[in-house]
Amino acid sequence: MEEKLKPSVKSEGDGGAARKVRGKHVAFMMVVGLTSILQGTVTKGWTAVLPKMQDDPHSFVKTDDDVAWLVSMTSIVGIFASLATGPLVEWVGPCLVLAIVMGVSTALWLLMVFPPHKVVFFVARAGLAACVYAVSTVSLPLLAEMSPNKVRGAVATLSEIGGSTGVLYGYLVAFLFPWKIATALCTLTAALLFLPMWFVPESPYWLVRRGRLDDAKASLQRLMGSTPEVEEELAAITRRPTATQTSLLQQFTELRKGQNLRPVVLVLSFFVLRELGGRSCIMMYTVYIFRDAGVELDAFTCTVLVGAARLVCTCVTAGILDHVGRRPLLIITAVVAAVSQSVCGLFLFLQLPGASLVPLVAVLVYIAAYGTGVGPIPWVYVGELVPSPVRSLGASIITACDALVVFSINLAFLKLIGYTGLGITFLAFGGLNLVIALIVCIWIPESRGVSLQEMEDAFAKKHSPDDLKEPLANKHSPDDLKEPLANKHSPDDLKEPLANKHSPDDLKEPLANKNDSPDDLKGPIRV
């Protein structure tokens, strides 16, 4: 039976539930979250221009192999970019990394519009891939550190909303304009956020790890205002294990501990399974899928509908995630995604009546489920479940492994549906999404309204599956949790835990019985 515990008024270093969120604080979090617009446009939205590039005799994209490499190369580059981003963040700071990435991305987009050679075009595409995977690695942990508990779920979905906006934006410009103009308009996804990122205060967690306590205090004041809570927050951050993690080697050492490794592996499993479940294939090969399925509606129009459905559902998630909870929402949406893909696969495999319309409806249902839970919640878990002592390293490993799986499946997708058919492929996708729901049911605790430190404590203990579902309850009352060390003793008792109310003379002679003489103590032990 799951017990529900009220979130504590003060949390350990990640924002109290009762703290009022200032408008400036919200603006800073929105800027960080919306950097993922670049990610959505580069990895998925822009790929909708590829059919038009193949039709243009003057473009550098001619064959299906060119298309496959342009789609999948973002992932293979992302593997190395993700692994390099973790140490880079620890060296220069997460906010500075995001600001630099926005500027570099703007230049790379322009290089893709006017490429002097095919190699330059592909290199610019690879550079953009490195930039977006840097954004993926940095933005979610940074948002988790910036946001108070009571709105952490909604804030974390900002990243997914930004990604969905980027996807829809890329689909729209690909639908409305020739590929060169569409690519030029994609430049705005980075250029508009370049200057705002320079005004976002640096992560106080990173500043504490670097020993810059005065700068950390100034950063907290910009986020929270000049309030007494700033001192409390700074003290809480310095007490956390992450305050001592200053090197990559230390994080590797911490990762070997089961309490840190278990949540990293669980979060990683979500990313691997959702990619093997067709997430990137459906989003990146949308036009090709609808053409292959024989959908009567124009494939570009269907693609725009897919992007709109994802954005709307992701916005809905932002409003309900902190009320419904992560766990039930992820279970339900994973099951819906599995059912929709299985139905689509059966209709295509058996060539049942209505097969020209069912793929569109099934893909839209899948996208709705993805946008509501399967898409945003794993990214929320990167910020919430990955422990602070290994957060930079864990996020890098998760993003790199995700990139490796995306590269493999996207490179093979067109050949896969050529060998097995679209129907069998979608049936396999459905089965893998169902596994996500099973993992959540068995191993994942609810993190709604729970502080980051309390989530770490839940994995630090060897719980049973039932205990993990209620990591904070521990069958204690809220009053017990407010005084975990006191055990209802008075302050005087805590000040003298060993004295047991004896006099100083008693402590000086702990073994001497007051009835014994010094000569007795010098003599042998009497039996």
Automatic annotation (TrEMBL):
Record-annotated membrane-spanning stretches: 26-47, 67-89, 96-114, 120-143, 155-175, 181-200, 297-321, 328-350, 356-381, 393-413, 419-444
Coiled coil (residue ranges): none
Ranges of residues in domain Major facilitator superfamily (MFS) profile: 28-448
Gene Ontology molecular functions: transmembrane transporter activity
Subcellular location: Cell membrane
GO CC annotations, alphabetized: plasma membrane
Keywords: Cell membrane, Membrane, Sugar transport, Transmembrane, Transmembrane helix, Transport
InterPro entries named in the record: MFS_dom, MFS_sugar_transport-like, MFS_trans_sf, MFS_Trehalose_Transporter, Sugar_transporter_CS
Pfam family, one: Sugar_tr
Membrane disposition: Multi-pass membrane protein
Disordered: region residues: 463-527
Name this polypeptide is given: Major facilitator superfamily (MFS) profile domain-containing protein
